[in-house]
Amino acid sequence: PEFIVNCTVNVQDMCQKEVLVKDDGIHYRKSCASSGACLIASSGYQQFCTGKLNSVCITCCNTPLCNGPRRKKRPPPSAAMAPNTLQRPVFSLSLLLLLVSIFC
């Protein structure tokens, strides 16, 4: 599959994923990094990981092909049976993290 990198075979043993929110959309960068460098970058950018414009989120993973696509979860049966309600879309940090987990 597209956008998968195996970062567990060298000194750069972690996959570093960056999600940037810019005025023209959400941008993704994936690279390999040493575990120390990735964890330092991830913790250093926590204050900038807001989910808003100019947000930068960095996450790390260290299992083989961990930045590949993940299967989508099925909604619980009760959600499908719920009456129609108006739900406003909210762009938040949780949505941004969900996007990271789906695309990385």
From TrEMBL:
Keyword field: Disulfide bond, Signal
Protein name (record): LY6/PLAUR domain containing 1
PANTHER family assigned: CD59 GLYCOPROTEIN, LY6_PLAUR DOMAIN-CONTAINING PROTEIN 1
InterPro entries xrefs: Snake_toxin-like_sf
Taxonomic superkingdom: Eukaryota
Entry keyword annotation includes Transmembrane: no
Cellular component aspect of the GO annotation: synapse
